[in-house]
Design a protein that fits this description.
The complex is a heterodimer of chains A (189) and B (392). Chain A has 189 residues and is mainly alpha-helical. In chain A, 80% of the residues lie in helices and 0% in strands. The chains are: A mainly alpha (189), B alpha+beta (392).
């Protein structure tokens, strides 16, 4: 009888642990999706600002047609990336960031454009959006790290394999950003 | 350019005529002024003027020349912003400041006075034990009971004196830093200041007993993106009683926002409240999209979760979350209250630990103490003010 109760208790314990591990994986995956939503919101905000920017710059710097067209094409390409294609999305977004940097550098040659309040406002909003994108990326990559650790480490890897939990992709930064941006800090008091 | 004032006036005029700081420096040197003198005068202009558009450029130039600490400039003002809503100006504490300076002057003019006083006070217990065999009344006092704790009281005068000298050193270092940046400083322990702050921010300041606010700074800080009004102070309170009595000292910073937040809420280190209370709090908890943030901070607010969640999440954007995590990494555990047009931080510990100044050896302030306070204040204000543009 005692042996039977012991086995029962052991099974119950294993069951509880299994449930905790499973729920942990579900929660981690959900957090990755949530963090991706956060990035998406900021990217959409950037998409919305770009047409205004192109229109403003065209009015003052028509000669920079090439750069403006590159920006418009980069935006369209990024918006066309299907959902779930993280690496492709990262590459497309990096192309937009690169073109924006080029455009703002070129704007230095047009004092009238620089003095335009509309352009200044767009520049400020885009700079803020870039910062939010960078921060959202860090948060997303932090959540992905946690998810991947759970998927790979014992004993949660057993539960992960059984229920089809897989490693998530990082939202890779371009080389320039990789130098400056660290992972989301793991705070240890 | 013969006199100091003449040099400064000439340099100022050239800067006003849209010459760059480097050009102004070159002109001064070619006119026969030494580079050090010219830089000193440029620094004086930087510190004393407030209205000119060339100031940020001049600040960067001087920073490159390693003449000043980064980012800050004193700004002349009449009234400073105060989180308790009081009217504070430089004149408010002029009496206390003069008192501090007078004490310092006395000790500076009589360098051996501190050591002499400490020795004289230290002689009290020694004198007691020397005289004890000779004076029957003293012998009786010593051997009458079994309790010898009263002997400690003999050392009290010298201990109190040493503590006061130590406090004077700390107050002076802070006063010098405040003066350099044009900030207002008060070293006084004030119960009524605490009472006002506790009334406005009860969750932060309504703790323990014997509370007071001391070592306060008020001023403007020029951050990377904007100039911000700030206040800083030490919040002291006591918990427990008798042998379990503990005195706590926390450093508080308050920053004034350009906007009024839609929601008031507070972040505390996750895990600080007991798991018993956390269990009941679970349903009200607001989680952001960041695991790291949720593990580090617990969000406290009044009202219904459905109403507050969206507003709080909007304020805690990714940029704000990441910066708050950076602050936690650098400065350790802290509490932050977002309330109307103010953000208040409460950090563990004091601005200045392990003083290097020692008035017993030499009555002067050690440059390392000034540098330590400078760096700590700048570091905290720099990183905390970095959040503000994302809250506007």
């Amino acid at each position: 009888m005692n042996f039977f109760l012991f086995i029962l208790g052991l099974v119950a314990l294993v069951g509880v642990i299994y449930t905790i591990l499973y729920n942990g994986l579900v929660s981690a995956r959900q957090k990755v999706k949530e963090a991706w939503s956060g990035i998406d919101v900021q990217l959409k905000r950037r998409y919305d600002l770009i047409p205004n920017l192109v229109k403003t710059v065209k009015g003052y710097a028509a000669h920079e047609k090439g750069t403006l067209e590159s920006l418009t094409q980069a935006r369209a390409a990024a918006m066309a990336v299907p959902k779930g294609h993280i690496a492709e999305k990262a590459s497309a977004e990096n192309a937009i960031s690169g073109t924006l940097k080029t455009l703002f550098a070129l704007a230095e040659n047009y004092p009238d454009l620089k003095a335009s309040s509309n352009f200044h406002e767009l520049q400020v909003q885009l700079a803020e959006t870039e910062d939010q994108i960078a921060s959202s990326r860090r948060i997303y990559n932090g959540n992905v790290t946690e998810m991947n650790v759970k998927v790979e480490s014992f004993p949660s890897n057993i539960v992960a394999k059984k229920h089809g939990f897989t490693k998530e992709e990082f939202f890779d930064l371009d080389e320039g950003e990789k130098e400056g941006v660290k992972n989301v800090p793991q705070v240890k008091f | 350019m013969n006199t100091q004032l003449g040099i400064r006036k000439t340099l100022l005029n050239q800067l006003k005529n849209k010459k760059s700081p480097a050009q102004v420096l070159d002109l001064a040197v070619s006119a026969g002024v030494s580079k050090d003198d010219a830089l000193r005068e440029l620094e004086a202009i930087f510190r004393s003027e407030s209205e000119y558009t060339f100031l940020p450029v001049l600040g960067s130039f001087l920073q490159q020349q390693k003449k000043i600490s980064p980012l800050n400039t004193p700004v002349s003002f009449s009234e400073v912003w105060d989180p308790a809503g009081e009217k504070i100006t430089k004149k408010t504490f002029i009496g206390a400041t003069k008192k501090l300076l007078t004490k310092y002057q006395v000790y500076k003019e009589n360098p051996g006075l501190i050591r002499r006083n400490a020795i004289l006070l230290g002689l009290i217990p020694i004198g007691f034990f020397v005289l004890m065999p000779l004076v029957p009344a003293l012998r009786e006092l010593l051997f009458s009971g079994n309790d010898f704790n009263w002997i400690g009281f003999l050392f009290l005068p010298v201990i109190i004196y040493l503590a006061r000298i130590h406090q004077l050193q700390r107050d002076l270092v802070k006063m010098v830093v405040a003066d350099e940046y044009g900030w207002v400083y008060s070293s006084e322990k004030q119960k009524d200041r605490w009472s006002k702050l506790a009334g406005i921010y009860p969750h932060l300041f309504d703790k323990g007993s014997d509370q007071n606010i001391q070592d306060e700074f008020w001023g403007k800080f020029r951050g990377k993106k904007q100039t911000v009004d700030f206040w800083s102070g030490i919040f002291e309170y006591t918990t427990g009683s008798g042998k379990q009595k503990t005195v706590h000292k926390k450093t508080a910073f308050a920053l004034h926002l350009n906007t009024v937040l839609k929601s008031n809420f507070r972040l505390e280190p996750e895990g600080d409240s007991s798991s018993f209370f956390r269990f009941f709090r679970r349903k009200k908890e607001i989680d952001t999209e960041s695991n790291a943030f949720n593990k580090t901070f617990a969000v406290f607010y009044n009202g219904k979760k459905q109403e507050k969640q969206l507003e709080i999440i909007k304020i805690l954007s990714p940029s704000v979350q990441v910066r708050l995590l950076e602050i936690a990494n650098r400065e350790g555990k802290f509490i932050i209250q977002f309330q109307k047009d103010t953000v208040v931080f409460i950090f563990q510990g004091l601005l200045l630990q392990n003083m290097k100044s020692n008035f017993f050896k030499k009555v002067s302030l050690d440059a390392r103490d000034k540098k330590a306070i400078n760096e700590r204040i700048n570091r905290i204000l720099d990183i905390t003010s970095d959040i503000l543009p994302f809250l506007d």
